[in-house]
Amino acid sequence: MVDDFKNDDNVLEVVERFEQMLENDEQHFFDVQVYEMVITYYRQENKIKQALQVCNIASHQYPFSMELLLEKAHLLTHLDKYNQALELVEKISTFQPTDYDTLFLKANIYVQLGNYQEAIDVYGFLLKFASEKDELLYNIGYTYQSMGFYDKAIAFYKKALKHNLNNEAAVLELAYCLDITGNLEDGLEYYKKFIDENPYSFLAWYHLGMTYAKLGNMTDALNAYEYSTLIKDDFAPGYIEIGNIYITLSRYDEAQKAFETALLHETFSADLYCKLAYTFELKKEYYAAITHYKEAMEVDKLWDDAWFRAGLCLFSLNKYYESLHYFRKATQINGINENYWLAIADAEFAMGNILSSLDAYEEASNLAPDNPIVWLKWATTMYDHGYIDKATEVVLDALDECPENAEIHYRAVAYLISTGKYKQAFNLLENALILDFDKHTMLFDFFSDLETQKALYQIIDQYKTL
């Protein structure tokens, strides 16, 4: 039985008839074009396994169709079955040794398998025949980048852009390689020259802005970003970076306007809603900030930063119980961020739950033992509530994890003196003075008696001229 759907424009009807055939365990013969139509539908729906099933059935009926074999190879790569895909490509190559699509896929598979030089050889061979070379040049650059040869990658990305200045991927990866190699000044000159030749490339202006920003030149960065949005007025990334710079410059109203403009063109972005909310938070308009953080949660309920920052706003409003709910939600989503546990500790402490607060500090220290802020806040809470021996243990443990932190040394000195362990304290004081002499003044916040201050000065004076 032959079903010919060549003239049937209703793709859904074609797919439905095919699925009925499978459901009824029947075997019909379709034209190759019909199979391709069904395969394309499944691919667009991201139903790769179903597409592969159709491809297998079609290949049995049309075993010599190179198009179907190539399609099957593509589908296998989507399922990360690169070796199987390569076998099919090699088979096709015996019949079509110079077919561009087949060789291009082969090179892509080589990249995924880590056979980088083989991939570069194939891309290079295709360059001889390609009329539009930018994609091949970009792929060669990306392969070199995957090998860690960033300078070679940069050279090929530049070549790709000479052929097609609108190759967004090449602009993006070029910027990454210039950044990772520290060639920011070179990148600056490149983008300037590129813009001289292509003044309406919004991407070039955008990455020029990124380069200026990384070099700390915020004024020129802002100008470059503004040019990118003038050229392409719906370019959300440009507005976002403008907003980021205004935040850096403490111009929060202007940052707010930039993020609001970006949202006109990138509505479903939890991160962008958080950026907008942050401008209100910085202006201490906490209720407005919470509203926008909640919008971020609506877009992505697992966006932990939105829960965390909404909690901070509630904490600033002295709504400690409510803030604790948000902080705990953040840890449920991302339990390895020590800042979330520090926030829980602060909220518990504010409500008078000292033991729960200390437990949260301990959790934070386990997650980030090299973060001195965690140890210092933990120790301070215990010391201020009379747990001086425990506070001393904490700062001494902190010294093992943060041996180069002067403030922890000085805090350990203060606590040891408070517990009468003068010899150990003065030994640590010498280390603290060597690490950062200027911070020694914090010791006198702990001791007002002249005898202790005199003993401290006798040691401190020895290091004044060192």
TrEMBL record:
Residue intervals passing through the bilayer: none
InterPro entries for the chain: TPR-like_helical_dom_sf, TPR_rpt
Keyword Electron transport among UniProt keywords: no
Pfam families: ANAPC3, TPR_1, TPR_16, TPR_8
TPR repeat boundaries on the chain: 134-167, 202-235, 236-269, 304-337
GO biological process entries: cell division
Keywords from the UniProt entry: TPR repeat
Domain of life: Bacteria
Keyword Coiled coil: no
Descriptive protein name: Tetratricopeptide repeat family
